[in-house]
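Budget justification note: compute hours in this period were largely spent on complex prediction jobs such as the one shown. Inputs:
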Amino acid sequence: MSAPAAGAAKRVLAKGNEAICHGAIAAGCRFYYGYPITPQNDIPEYMAAHMAEHGGAFLQAESEVATINMILGTSSTGNRVMTSSSGPGISLMQEGLSFMVGSQLPAVIVNISRSGPGLGGIAPSQGDYFQATKVAGHGDAHLICLAPHSVQEMYSLTMLAFDLADKYRNPAMILGDAIIGQMKEPYDPVPYVPAVPDKPWALTGARGRAARHIKSMFLKDGEIEVHNWKLRDKFRKIREEEVRFEPYMLDGAKIGIVAFGTAARVAKTSIQSARKEGIEVGMLRPITLFPFPEEQVRDMASGVQKVLVVEMNTGQMVEDVRRSTPHHERIHFFGKPCAVPTPDEILEQIRLLAGRKG
Amino acid sequence: MKQVFDRPRTLLDARFHYCPGCHHGTIHRIIAETLDRMELRENTIGIAPVGCAVMLYDYMDIDILEAPHGRAPALATGIKRSLPDRVVFTYQGDGDLASIGMGEIVHAANRGENITVVFVNNTTYGMTGGQMAPTTLLGQKTTTSPFGRDFRTEGYPIRMAELLAGLEGVAYSTRVTVSSPAHIRKAKEAIRKGFEMQLKGMGFSIIEVLSTCPTNWGMKPLDAQKRVLGEMAEYFPLGVFKERKQADFA
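Corresponding output:
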């Protein structure tokens, strides 16, 4: 189906991957380049069918290395541009992402992550957390990273990702997984006006103005250090102003879960069941993984007796939880690498922490 | 008094950082003159490579994007797809284009990407200190082929202009040099044709320029010119390998 107009009254039944495409088109993205990899192929297939009708272009690149550099090229002209991939493909894009951070170029990169390391498997996983949140390729570089946990958020966070990428002139990543990508549920095409700033840096040909250069190399004495501090200031501002999170049933909670994406979605069901059993449990769900909601995790951890971090990996975000709070003894971890935990499995962990028998 | 010769408008009044006898300065000037004559300066976006020419933006008064090593054709694709009415060219060396960027150049050429590529082949990695390139001649000593390139271990020098001419998407593929005034005139003609192909929307064009690196070759500039016209031109013949005519372009 064609992308619904933002603000349309009717709810839309769509797969998560499709909702990302709808969000991107509503955000004014007219260029998409990508390379096939499971489990995100619905995205390039949708864009191949629909970019032209919106006056844009789709191109299947020869590799993810070429893809990210085509993204870099289109971004340099000031146009909104997106790609999507999964684990191994995102790894191949790291060089280009570092160049984009260094060159201060915006774009949206979607990672519908799969199991790793290596070829791993196509099962859903959150094993790319470190890669998505700690560094963009080489150098002192970060991505803005958003983690949707519903088809609704696949739509709306994609639009937000474009706005944040443009606002900060930095690539932004949507970190999903096979479940959130393939899951079908209704979403509201919420009213939205793209926040596209002026781009006085865009390369369009030096007609009637001074020539512009976009580069990441700074060889003159001290230049690269100045550039690094400038980027640090930008990332600091992002940390201060762009944290997003959802507090879920945290009132009076004695156990606080921290989970993102699909794991958080499942945990909501477990929390509802536990509450029915009289266990006071809630959740703080990071929506932005970079910037990580450090203060919110700190405050929550100081108000509960136990913190349960649930991830679909062997323990990555739990490190960010640890550095956010001094109460390390309260932190417990439940991981399901390369698989989705069932509501019962998380409920079992909650019961154990509450001192209930299973 | 009538002025008959001056610095092209597109060429900035800056001192080249290139070594004595290096051809980058000459090739820069040819591109600048061509953009001036075709009145393209304000409509052009250039891609600077990784290599000695990375600071192209210090010498040319046009919009320029700096590429990761070898990726210039992918960047150019991203620019041309979003701004099809702008003129887009890449400037790449042999390590950049024929080694690490082999995938990007072949696929851009095969797509018939409507861009112009200026390929500077000096048979070595200049900026990193004279290592072996994919175009290094057999027997040529470099810092990473200290006993001379041997086909049994390092394979053969790649003839890129011929290789790309074999692809359907290529409109124009030629090899020139700038080692004498006569050759410079021919090179100028080739680069003009490369941009013309793009303006006519005829597809991908590549102008390979055999060029010197006296510093890393350990040669005096004049001897380096002789090497280009001697053993280099012998292995990498000058000429046109493909030229699409308007008539055969559907």
